[in-house]
Write a structure and sequence with these properties.
alpha/beta, 8-stranded mixed beta sheet, 37% helix, globular, Aminotransferase_I/II_large
Amino acid sequence: MRPIQKSQKLADVCYDIRGPVMEKAKQMEEEGQKIIKLNIGNLAVFNFGPPDEIVQDMILNMQSAAGYTDSKGMFAPRKAIMHYTQEKKIRGVTMDDIYIGNGASELIVMGMNALLNSGDEVLVPAPDYPLWTAAVSLSGGKPVHYICDESAGWMPDIDDIKRKITPNTKAIVVINPNNPTGALYPIDILQKIVDVARENQLIVFADEIYDKTLYDEAEHVSIASLADDVLFLTLNGLSKNYRSCGYRAGWMVISGEKRHAKDYIEGLNMLASMRLCSNAPGQFAIQTALGGYQSIKDLVGPGGRLLKQRDLAHKLLTAIPGVTCVKPKAALYMFPKLDPAIYPIEDDQAFIQDLLVEQRVLLVQGTGFNWIAPDHFRVVFLPNTDDLTDAMNRIASFLEGYRRRHGTGEFAPKQTNE
């Protein structure tokens, strides 16, 4: 029989967070080995539970959750989201501008599917959350990666953005707070991106899923609050701030210059209708979450578990010879750099798989986030301090062996990048 092959649309689609190394980890677990997984920001497996009032509201409303809802979502959660946009100072949002989805992930793909024709280009940050790059490719578009500058705290390089705009560029993606770097963008950077979008008539896709997961009293500014004459699609949800990944409750908000986007919005409405609706139980959690006690503040504030784990992971990583790391101001991740003179890595996926096999720690290589060189990896700092210390010690041991094998153990004292 002739082989049955995957669609050619998937040829340029990559999602290494759950890629080949993850498959190797599954095989090892089936053999009875215990793996420390620092590859996915799945809070529940690290005993970060959702707020009790969210769970109770879902239980109480389960009898009402069996039917289809409006294709854009129920009235009450969309109303709550509308109020939240007002808190974020995003102007002019109506109920019709809000779409609830099975997580923000579904809406990312929907937003790209409705927009892109073959050959259309979308500016995506490097490094990025790889679903953005995959969604552009799957929709027939071409992802063009603009550099975020590690030496500047992982801020988007505005000049690089400008250089990469062509007549085919339709949109720019802004991930703020950023996954995988943990960077948080100040107003001046966001305003410069808005200016570029305005000048080139680009749509701004704003991924703000970590907008409450902020450290050191940092404040988040929604880019859509900075202009009314640019079209913005802002995405958020319950997965991270409310530790509700499996509830698949996310939303997308259209704001700004909507008058010239009627045809695109009609396309979004068509796609929303085709999937009928997002899951109803998850929708029942949204109003309670947004209007209730914001327990995320207890986790990221002084003495909070996430803050302690961020500080510990950063301290232990940057104590390893040849490892530097910009300390994240937000989110659940850090993106350390391995000095190429000390760690001459050619294939970072193979490097990460060797770490897995030798030390039973699962990470994701930097190129899995569309970074340009095999010299970074992403660390999830969700395990408790004992497990996190164990994981960092295993990484340190592996890197010590790597230096010994490659004869790069002698070098000058390093400087950490704060």
